[in-house]
Write a sequence for this structure.
């Protein structure tokens, strides 16, 4: 019973935090000289949820291609889609915590090795996004380094966790032979 409570507490807390930080950012003045996306509340929110930031980066690029300069699509992505993805991310994290060092999610896909490889690729791409975030302010500063740090941590954690799980799944497959 205690584990089930924790499984939902972490995602709910992270969703509440994301909503608070996003709302704080929406209340901030957004000018050309001082765009709201550079503010600490927005940067912290996206950094804490770096895998979601990676997904949002792709979704925003796709939306911009399909619906150029559409404020309503951008608003939908920045609020509803972002918050739902944050909840899913942290629910997945809470499930993986229950695996005692092994992935619980990838074996359930039916293609464990492919899922692990895809997760490792996502981890590497989150690290690359961290380098992009580090340079988004035009020059590298202490602030840009601090903003990029969670992306590097997330990317390394995903890559190491699922890389280890991939190695374990190959070892299990070899033992069956």
């Amino acid at each position: 019973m205690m584990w089930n409570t924790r499984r939902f507490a972490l995602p709910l807390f992270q969703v509440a935090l994301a909503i608070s930080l996003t709302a704080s950012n929406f209340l901030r003045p957004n000018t050309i000289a001082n765009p709201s996306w550079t503010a600490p509340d927005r940067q912290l929110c996206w950094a804490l949820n770096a895998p979601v930031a990676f997904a949002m980066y792709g979704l925003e690029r796709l939306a911009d291609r399909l619906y150029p300069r559409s404020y309503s699509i951008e608003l939908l992505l920045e609020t509803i889609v972002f918050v739902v993805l944050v909840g899913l991310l942290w629910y997945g994290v809470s499930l993986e915590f229950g695996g005692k060092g092994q992935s619980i999610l990838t074996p359930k896909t039916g293609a464990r090795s492919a899922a692990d490889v895809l997760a490792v690729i996502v981890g590497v791409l989150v690290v690359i996004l961290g380098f992009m975030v580090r340079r988004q302010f035009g020059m590298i500063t202490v602030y840009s380094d601090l903003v990029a740090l969670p992306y590097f941590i997330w990317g390394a954690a995903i890559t190491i966790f699922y890389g280890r799980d991939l190695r374990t799944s190959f070892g299990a497959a070899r033992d069956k032979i």
Residues 109-177 form one domain.
